[in-house]
Design a protein that fits this description.
Layout lengths: L16 H8 L22 H12 L12 H4 L28 H14 L3
Length: about 120
């Protein structure tokens, strides 16, 4: 039976697969690294583009879950019956005043909400 002995982590060379292939197979010619690569800047979609996108995906046969938290489309996901056994919709948790809060403020807010929840 063939046995494999584990190597110490310090002896393992963690490299990218393409670099490892280059080291293992000297016959492969690697493209020369260039420093002239320009990173393309991807701009955020405008509100009109987002509205159009959400409108298109809302017409799909199976509704994507992201629509549960998008204002006008969230209504479709809210149960029609007011039942104490069902949690309140996620949109009720949205608070625009917290958009520019620091981490600790958000953490305190989350803890306050979590303490109100029961399973």
């Amino acid at each position: 039976m063939f046995q494999v002995t584990p190597a110490c982590v310090s002896d393992i060379k963690f490299v990218q697969p393409c670099n490892k292939k280059i080291c293992l197979d000297p016959g492969i010619s690697a493209p020369a690294p260039t420093s002239n690569h320009k990173r393309s800047v991807i701009k955020s979609p405008s509100s009109e583009e987002l509205d159009g996108f959400f409108s298109k995906i809302s017409k799909a046969e199976k509704k994507p879950a992201i629509l549960k938290i998008v204002g006008p489309y969230a209504e479709e996901f809210i149960p029609r019956l007011n039942s104490a056994s069902l949690p309140s919709p996620m949109m009720d948790l949205y608070n625009p005043e917290l958009l520019h809060s620091d981490y600790l403020s958000l953490l305190n807010e989350c803890e306050a909400i979590a303490s109100d929840l029961s399973v």
